[in-house]
Amino acid sequence: MDFNMTPPTTEMEQFRQEVRTWLEENIDERMKEPVDEDDFTGEMYSYWREKHQQLAKKGWLNPTYPKEYGGGGLTGAHEAVIVQELREARACSNMSDRRTPESIMVWGSEEQKQKFLVPILTAKVTTWQKLTEPHSGSDLASYESKAVRDGDDWILNGSNVFISGRGARPDYLCGPMQTDRDAPRHRNLGYFLIPADQPGVEIRPMNLVVGNTHSHTIFLTNVRVPGNHLIGGDHQGWQVLSTQLEQEHGGDGGGGGSLAPNRSVESLITYARETKVNGRSLGSYPLAGQSTTEAYIDGHVDKLFSQRAYWIHQSGSEPAHEGALSHLFDKLYGIRHEARFREVMGPYSLLGTTDPLAPHGGLQEIRMRNALAISHRAGSLNIAKVVLARRMGVSRTKERAAPMRTKGAKSAH
Ligand SMILES: Cc1cc2nc3c(=O)[nH]c(=O)nc-3n(C[C@H](O)[C@H](O)[C@H](O)COP(=O)(O)OP(=O)(O)OC[C@H]3O[C@@H](n4cnc5c(N)ncnc54)[C@H](O)[C@@H]3O)c2cc1C
């Protein structure tokens, strides 16, 4: 198995140069991703909405989706190059949730792909993933927000917490609603694309101490949604959701994000190498040296796990436990990784963005506040262990991967 997505071929090097040059010539330095997400302004939001449309036209925003739906029709190797170059250029990548398109691709009708998928992939509209309810985060199947039929439409009522997204509101909120209160679990849900400008949709910012999340609470009060905004059947929401969760749980290898160099580890190594204490490099002291080396090893393993999952996804093979393993390791790694910065940098790692002595512009202080919270995103640590156990067959049930978009895959609709 060769899961290196970026073999150094001449064609790929030329492509890399093309992407790099375009980014150098077209991205305004003032609009680049700030160290602190809280410094992402409204002006930046408008700028990147427009830039994403330009990137989509070039086929670089959603490189591996088919061209006929607004993607780039490119390979995983191209995506790897694009992801790496966007990261290096500090380009904003997350203006819209990247998991809903996969669900529409697999479960949507052709009419729905034209109506929703094309505008999403070409960055004309944005989506937020609306899953977590106040009482049902890990146990999503106990969803209580309700959808009731009214002629051809549906009337929605319910609420959500921790919904991430940039900007004041997206064009669509995407997620399950309970469509049949009498049906058994997993057969009582439908999956909806809810226009966020409908009367009855209320979105409030959720200010968390962790920062860097752009979290929101959402309230739906008698929100009317047309029937063709239901993706899949009215009892099929769990399956549609499973395609989304498959990605959340590592099945798409992080969508290529892991293919970029691990700058965080590199910065720790540089810090340990270049910081002098009593005339010696910090890294030459046993604890700092050991923590830096462990960070390097863990970072490497984390990358290889997600590259393997990405390769399996891109090659169209059915994943077994690889995505779940990568997902769990990444969570554990994230927490350990931030602790190592504390070990190596000491109290300097706790200095914020406004302190001139803060290493890396205060990035570490933000990351440290985030580390534990981020390990809850896409399912807590415990749940990631349950998912892995089920995939490995060391649990009460053994589960297979949910359907996902693969090269040439047919719609499940
Ligand atoms: C930074 C961030 C961004 C997020 N973004 C989004 C988003 O965009 N959209 C969205 O819908 N949601 C989002 N979430 C919510 C996230 O998906 C939930 O926090 C997560 O699924 C856990 O749910 P919960 O918080 O309700 O915890 P709970 O489900 O209440 O769990 C609480 C604790 O109990 C444990 N637990 C629960 N069930 C079991 C079990 N069966 N076995 C063992 N232990 C168990 C959990 O591990 C956890 O430690 C985000 C969360 C964070 C922190």
Short description:
This protein has eleven helices and ten strands. By secondary structure, the protein is an alpha+beta fold.
Largest sheet: 4 strands, mixed
List the ligand species: flavin-adenine dinucleotide
What structural class is derived from the secondary structure elements? Answer: alpha+beta
Secondary-structure element series = HHHHHEEEEEEEEHHEEHHHH
- The portion of residues assigned to helices is 40-55%
Number of helices: 11
Count of beta strands = 10
In order across it, which strands form the biggest sheet? 1-4-5-8
What is the fold's blueprint, element by element?
Elements: H1 10-26, H2 42-58, H3 76-88, H4 100-107, H5 110-121, E1 127-129, E2 146-150, E3 153-160, E4 172-178, E5 189-195, E6 201-206, E7 215-226, E8 230-231, H6 237-248, H7 263-274, E9 276-277, E10 280-281, H8 286-315, H9 322-345, H10 363-374, H11 381-392
Parallel strand pairs: 1-4
Antiparallel strand pairs: 2-3, 3-7, 4-5, 5-8, 6-7, 9-10
The chain binds flavin-adenine dinucleotide.
Question: What this model shows, in words?
Answer:
- The longest helix is centred in the last third of the chain and has 30 residues, at 286-315.
- The protein folds into three domains: 10-93, no CATH class; 127-236, Beta Barrel (Butyryl-CoA Dehydrogenase, subunit A, domain 2); 249-392, Butyryl-CoA Dehydrogenase, subunit A, domain 3, CATH 1.20.140.
- It is globular and about 80 Å long.
- With 413 residues, it is of the alpha+beta class.
- It is 41% helix and 13% strand.
- The model is unreliable at 407-413 (pLDDT under 50).
- It has helices at 10-26, 42-58, 76-88, 100-107, 110-121, 237-248, 263-274, 286-315, 322-345, 363-374, 381-392; strands at 127-129, 146-150, 153-160, 172-178, 189-195, 201-206, 215-226, 230-231, 276-277, 280-281.
- The two termini are 32 Å apart.
- It has eleven helices and ten strands.
- It has a four-stranded mixed sheet.
- A hairpin with a 2-residue loop joins strand 9 and strand 10 (280-281).
- It binds flavin-adenine dinucleotide.
